[in-house]
Write a structure and sequence with these properties.
Blueprint: H1 2-5, H2 17-33, E1 47-50, E2 61-66, H3 68-79, E3 85-89, E4 101-103, H4 105-113, H5 119-125, E5 126-129, E6 133-137, E7 151-155, E8 161-163, H6 165-178, E9 182-185, E10 187-189, E11 192-195, E12 199-205, E13 210-221, H7 228-233, E14 241-251, E15 261-265, E16 271-273, E17 279-281, E18 284-289, E19 296-305, H8 314-329, E20 337-348, E21 361-363, H9 379-399, H10 404-407, H11 415-418, H12 421-426, H13 439-454, H14 456-463, H15 469-482, H16 486-494, H17 496-526, H18 532-549
Parallel strand pairs: 1-11, 2-3, 2-13, 3-9, 6-15, 13-21
Antiparallel strand pairs: 4-8, 5-8, 6-7, 10-12, 11-12, 12-13, 14-19, 14-20, 15-18, 16-17, 18-19
Helix pairs in contact: 3-6, 3-9, 4-9, 5-6, 9-18, 13-14, 13-15, 14-15, 17-18
InterPro entries: FAD/NAD-bd_sf
Protein name: FAD-dependent oxidoreductase
Length: 560
Amino acid sequence: MERLNARQSGGAGGGTSWEALQRLDDAWTRLRTMPTGTAAGPPPAFVREHLNQPLGASAQFDVLVCGGTIGIFIACALALRGLKVAVLERAPELRGREQDWNISRKELAELVASGVLTAGEVEEAIGIEFNPMRCGFAADEGGAGARAEAVEVWTDDVLNVGVRPDALIRFARARFEASGGVVREGTALGSLDVFSDGVRAPLFARRGAPAETVSARLVLDAMGNASPILAQQRHGVKPDGVCLVVGTLASGYVPKRNLHGDIIATSTPLTFGGERNASPMQIFWEAFPASSGPSDRTTYMFTYVDAEPARPSLLELLERYWELLPQYQSVELDSLTVQRVLFGFFPAHRASPTAPAFSRVLPVGDAGGLQSPLSFGGFGALTRHLDRIVSGIDRALACEALSAAELGWLQPYMPNLSAPWLFQKAMSAPVGASPSRDDINGLLRINFRVMERLGEPVLKPFLQDVPQFGALALTIGGMMIDSPLAMPGLLARMGPVAVAEWSMHMAAMVTYTAADMVLREPLRSAADSLSPKARHQLLCALDAWRFGSGLDYELGENEE
């Protein structure tokens, strides 16, 4: 504990790092110990529906976006289409966090294509760019039998750009407000009353005093996993998986070594922690050179777990971070100056994307669950889906397709987001299990050796959160050739239910891929002859095929 307290030179989530860590750790404790089902009691009534009653007056806005850090990009794209949009931000000021967001130029280009940013603004917001990027998996030196060799796979242009969030948000906000958009800072959403023709939302100033009441035709929930709307929708339901993350932004790394990043890496075999050491965990790392200085580096340590009480606290995980960082980065702790301590937990649900539960309320961003269960940052998922979501919202408002079921057309089942659940499960171990120390590392070494051999068309989509059937099938086939016992052993460890679900998602990916390739263009040509609502529904289905199969992803010219 003394070591942790000595490194409190930066805040995370408001207040000091220690205070923020305690708050978040308390929330993680509540999640993993919460009662489920009917034992959780009645759900909160944050959203109340009065669908047989009108709002009583014309809505002030077309769209009310709740949560500005991610929501400002969607809000700006909507305002550029001529819609009247307001953004609510609970924090005193709408701005991004201090350390970089890591993304690729390919994903940033989506913000330019949507008009939210110019190419010049993107260049100004980029603080650092680096290559190559590594995926590396350790061998268990203490394991029995012949020692396996560690595997390193290198690639370019994945999470290799560090952008300054405050600059991105400042540019997007300026364009949003120039287009007539309204920003309310230091303002929280009090509740939502949904009527047949709009939503009424009382707002509260940060100190709790009533501020005003606004109304809108549609509310976008961009408040992330802590959204009170999601809390009502998911009351009594534990997440199917959780990614626990701790890390730091620190200076003192050797500049000549601080030239590349790690997308995913391991430095140790399977370890144990949590209550009575009953929680087996594989520790993973991510690391990026930071734009704040030549010796600055952001390092994240993360693990995939379920929400069981025996899982470790964030404080325990952070202590493990201090123990393992010197080995991982070949650095002495005393040589580092910590600028910011980082920590978080990211719950994920197999039922993803998040289906709208209420009329006129649509989850987006992290609340929408569009990132795969393997990732814990939704900014890249937002950029990939931005045009699809914004175009769909524009159409839905035009044809009044705003019931919960109709909004569900914008958040459809996407099998390539559901299939990776097996991979997330393969990278974790249940409480009380006793897998071999090299179990997960061994599987990943085989997996990445095969993907490296198959080349960028297989490796890149997987690393950028866009699984595709052809790439997955080739990888699985290659793994069975390279290590015939690997896949049968994995499937046996996963169990018949998980394997059956995964098989259904893979079959759906085949169907979506074929439908997109064969039917997309003929049906798109026929869409203009339909009524506005039928056309909207068809276009949403075509988008579901394209994005649910991963065929929206295209390699750059130099990657093919």
